[in-house]
Amino acid sequence: MKKPVILLTVLILVILMTVPGFAANGQYYSGYWGVTSNALIAVNGKVLTLERNPVIIEGRILVPARTTFQVLGVTTEWYSSSGVVKMVKGNKAVKMTVGSKVAHSGGSVKYMEAPPILVNGTVMVPMRFVAETFGENVGWDAKNEMAYIGNKPAEIPSRSGLKSNRTYKVVIDAGHGGSQSGAVYGGVKEKDLNLDIAKRLNTLLKAEGIKTYMTREKDITVGLYTRSDLANKEKADLFVSIHNNAGNSKTSGSMTLYHPDSGKKKGNLTAYEFAQIVQKNLNKTLGSKNMGVIQRPNLAVLRTTNMPAVIAEIGYMSNSAELAKLKTDSYRQKAAEALRDAVIESLEKMYK
C-alpha cells in the first residue's frame, strides 16, 4: 500500500473515532480494522433492536445481515463452511464472502468498499451496498446518530410516560473488565457476559430516546470510583451496574443490590424502589428465581453514586443450567430488555 493511501486510511479512522455515535474501541474483524458504533439503525421508519452494535470499516457501516434486512423481505443464507453469505429477495440476489470485498450479483462481479465480517457468530454486511443492491435508499441522521434504510423515522420512539421535552440520562456499568474477569465458569468470563448485556441495553435505551453513558465499551479495567464519578459528573438519573453471580452449584436466580441510604433519591424514586422495579422485571422477563432485593451499604459503586443505583445480578454462572442460558444471545437479549423496561418504569415514576 502506498504511503498516501495509508495516511488517508488512518485519517478516516481518527475522524470516525471523534464523531458522535462512534466508539474508539478498534480491533480486527475478519482481517479488517474497524470500530464499533453506537449509532441507531432504522428500516422503513422503525428503529431496530440489533443483537450486535454496528461496525465501521473504511468509512462504511456494517450491520447484522438477517436482523436488518429481513424487515425488507430479504432472506439471508449463511454457509459457515465456506464463509459465504447469500441474500435473496424475489429475483434479486447477492453473494458475498466474509473478509472479501468481491460480491456477485445479477451475473456480475461487484466490488464493495467494506467486506462482510463475522462478529461472535453474527454475519455483518455493508449496509449501503446491500440496501442499494435491493433498490433501497440509505440515509444518515446526524442529530439522532442514526443510519436508516427507506423512510426515515418521524421521531425517535419513546414509550408512553416519558416526556419528549425532557433529557433522561442513564449510566450503564458493565461490571469488571480488563484484568478483573469476575466469575469464570466453563471458560466463560463474567466480564464478557456483563459487557454483552450492557451493550444491548445501551442500544435499547438509545432507541427510546434516552441519553446513555457507558463506563466501558470494551474489555478494559475501570476503577470503581471512576464508574460512580461518571454518573455523578453527568448528573445521571439512574445508574445500572450489570453483573452475574456465583455460589453453590444448585443456586440459581436473579437478585438486585442497592444502598439503603434514603438520601439516594431523585424525584419520586428511591434506590430501594429502583431495585424493586429492576428485580420485578428480571424475574418476569427471564422467568428466573427471585433471589430478592438486598441492601449492600459497603459496595463502592452503590455507596458513592448520588442517584438511585443498583447492581443487577442477572444469573448464577455457577449453576450449569443458568450458565447455559447466559451463553445464548436470546437470553442475554431478554436480560437487556428486562433492564430497559425497568429503567423506563423507574424514570416514569421518578418524574411522575
From TrEMBL:
> Would the keyword Hydrolase turn up in this protein's UniProt record?
yes
Q: Which GO terms describe its cellular component?
A: outer membrane-bounded periplasmic space
User: Which keywords does this chain's UniProt record carry?
Assistant: Hydrolase
Q: Name one Pfam family in it.
A: Cu_amine_oxidN1
Question: Could you name the domain of life of the organism this protein comes from?
Answer: Bacteria
Q: Which GO-annotated molecular functions does the record name?
A: N-acetylmuramoyl-L-alanine amidase activity
Gene3D superfamilies in alphabetical order: Copper amine oxidase-like, N-terminal domain, Zn-dependent exopeptidases
Q: Which InterPro entries match?
A: Cu_amine_oxidase-like_N, Mao_N_sf, MurNAc-LAA_cat, N-acetylmuramoyl_amidase_3
What PANTHER family does this protein map onto?
N-ACETYLMURAMOYL-L-ALANINE AMIDASE (PTHR30404), N-ACETYLMURAMOYL-L-ALANINE AMIDASE AMIC (PTHR30404:SF0)
Its name, as the record gives it, is N-acetylmuramoyl-L-alanine amidase
Organism taxonomic ancestry? Bacteria, Bacillati, Bacillota, Clostridia, Eubacteriales
